[in-house]
Amino acid sequence: NAGVTQTPKFRVLKTGQSMTLLCAQDMNHEYMYWYRQDPGMGLRLIHYSVGEGTTAKGEVPDGYNVSRLKKQNFLLGLESAAPSQTSVYFCASSYQGPLKLFFGSGTQLSVL
Amino acid sequence: AQKITQTQPGMFVQEKEAVTLDCTYDTSDPSYGLFWYKQPSSGEMIFLIYQGSYDQQNATEGRYSLNFQKARKSANLVISASQLGDSAMYFCAMRDRIQGAQKLVFGQGTRLTINP
């Protein structure tokens, strides 16, 4: 019953460092999403993917890159972290379009 | 323009009372969907209920129901007989077409606190 798994759960970075967040789902879902959650702003879509090998920009894509080399994995990269990227990051997946999304447990990222 | 608006940042309700969480939306697409998610203090996002724009009946899932008023563009969540475990953040979301693709757009959330 793994569902959607995010790693790591917590991370502290210094400004300018890079890192990759990994999202893995075992439900054979086509669609995968990366959201960030900030206080008072709900969840905002960073990037998404509608299938293996495809990615697209969401509402707030600047400063992030993504890759979907395998259907089950969706990676979110920060090339040069900034304090404005301090947030909680959620990965989600769905079988067919943005219907019922299954979420991971989140990654709390702090950039100092 | 804000697509999803939740006007109640926080609500306090006595246990066993019913509670209504407000959500209004804005879209020009005739086909859309509305969702409610619960986020307890542990942080995970839990799907509660879904309403399609063409659904004639209001959606219900156990103690949760969605009061869908299409003309008013509102999709309020009603929780009957509230329990202490209902204390959480609640997010309204809408499936909307953005830049040619359908995506899920979230409101700012309402923090619900159930008092014993």
Written description of the protein model:
The complex is a heterodimer of chains A (112) and B (116). With 112 residues, chain A is an all-beta fold. Chain A is 0% helix and 50% strand. Chain A has no helices and 11 strands. Chain A has strands at 4-7, 10-13, 19-25, 31-37, 43-49, 56-57, 64-67, 73-78, 87-94, 102-103, 107-111. In chain A, strands 2, 4, 5, 6, 9, 10 and 11 form a 7-stranded mixed beta sheet that branches. Chain A has a 4-stranded antiparallel beta sheet with strand order 1-3-8-7, with no helix packed on it. Chain A is globular. The N and C termini of chain A lie far apart (35 Å). Chain B contains no helices and 12 strands. Chain A binds chain B through residues 33, 35, 40-45, 48, 50, 56-59, 88, 90, 92, 97-103, 105-106, and chain B through 4, 6, 9, 33, 35, 42-45, 47, 50, 91, 93, 95, 98-99, 101-109.
Which terms would index this structure?
heterodimer, A: 112 residues, mainly beta, seven-stranded mixed sheet, four-stranded antiparallel sheet, 0% helix, globular, B: 116 residues, six-stranded mixed sheet, 54% strand
